[in-house]
Specification:
Elements (H helix, E strand, L loop, with lengths): L12 H7 L1 E15 L8 E19 L3 E4 L3 H15 L5 E7 L9 H16 L6 H8 L7 H7 L3 E4 L11 E5 L6 E7 L8 H9 L5 H20 L3 H23 L6 H12 L4 E4 L6 E5 L2 H11 L5 E6 L7 E4 L1
Parallel strand pairs: 3-4
Antiparallel strand pairs: 1-2, 1-11, 2-4, 2-5, 5-6, 7-9, 7-10, 8-9
């Protein structure tokens, strides 16, 4: 199992205990599932990308009890209690959440916050921390392994789905995302995506995904998306992602109100397509949309063309080719 390395250097344990640690964990995009049909024995399988922003950043210092402050404090407190139980420690710490990402917006915020809290407590207690085991204990990544892999590795990630035993999805491919490429994130600040009970009901009630479409997605990933990323060919990469998005989005449309959850994001994506940009879609259940572009200049021009009064906010992000960091304060 992957363990977050102790980057503090030899003999730094006492210093870490006294001064504390900072954890920075990346958000991620979920581009789609490979095989919702499941006829081969494994179901789901995911394609996704770690991002440099938005992200989770928090600090942890030794204390005589558990105290959590900052945005998402209540959620982080619950994760801290779960992490302490998992690690077999008291979990006494002063946690300060400095930066969070929008919840239920398509960035995997819950997984990253949970893993960041656990990594911080483990480092303070000088305990080994295996993110896979903790994620499994919390039932994070019960369908997708992209969020966990974004935390441990970063990059462009493909996982192999769940088997009948319930073990975490294995990472079967991981590539660096081209450094020059950018992702224009389209955030709808007025709504959240499907989550919780509604999400569970959606997976229960939707008809079985067509086998031929699952086969097409797997072919697109293996023979178009991954080779295009490996050779830094943005048009082929984007076209493959957009086709996957259409197949997955139309399947989930009855539970999210259309191919895209947010009408405002859908309108912006239509404008993206009209400009000839090949890669665009929605992360997970949304409502966040994205456009995949080959450079910072193209990203800036695109944002300038899309900005107008309303609920949408735009962020230019890079792919992040490393996982979370844990550093001494």
């Amino acid at each position: 199992m992957t363990q977050i390395p102790d980057g503090a250097g030899d003999g730094a344990g006492d210093d870490v205990e006294r001064r504390g640690v900072r954890v920075h964990a990346p958000g991620r995009l979920h581009f789609g599932f490979l095989d919702l049909h499941g006829g081969l024995g494994r179901r789901f399988g995911s394609l996704g990308l770690a991002l440099d922003a938005p992200a989770v950043t928090l600090t942890a210092r030794a204390a005589t009890s558990l105290a959590v402050t900052g945005p998402e404090a209540a959620r982080a407190h619950g994760y801290a209690l779960a992490a302490a139980g998992h690690l077999g420690i008291e979990g006494h710490a002063a946690l300060t959440v400095e930066e969070t990402m929008p919840a239920h917006a398509g960035f995997g915020s819950g997984t990253q916050l949970a893993l960041a809290v656990a990594a911080a407590l483990a480092r303070l207690a000088r305990r080994a921390f295996a993110p896979e085991a903790f994620a499994d204990a919390l039932d994070r990544g019960n369908r997708s392994g992209v969020g966990l892999a974004a935390f441990t590795q970063g990059g462009l990630i493909v996982d192999g789905g769940r088997d009948g035993l319930g073990t975490p999805p294995p990472v079967i491919a991981r590539l660096d995302y081209p450094e020059a490429w950018r992702v224009v994130l389209i955030l709808d600040t007025g709504m959240t995506g499907v989550h919780g009970t509604h999400e569970t009901e959606a997976f229960r009630d939707l008809p079985r995904f067509p086998e031929a479409q699952a086969a097409e997605i797997c072919r697109l990933v293996l023979m178009q998306v991954l080779p295009a990323a490996a050779t830094a060919e943005p048009e082929g990469f984007g076209a493959g992602i957009t086709r996957i998005q259409r197949l997955i989005g139309d399947h989930f449309a009855p539970h999210q109100g259309g191919r895209y959850a947010s009408p405002a994001v859908a309108e912006a994506l239509s404008a993206v397509a009209a400009q000839g940009i090949s890669g665009y879609g929605q992360s997970s259940w949304g409502p966040t949309g994205f456009a995949l572009v080959p450079s910072e200049d193209v990203a800036r021009r695109l944002v300038a063309s899309l900005e107008r009064p309303g609920p949408l906010r735009f962020l230019i992000a890079r792919g992040r080719n490393t996982g979370a960091t844990v550093t001494p304060l």
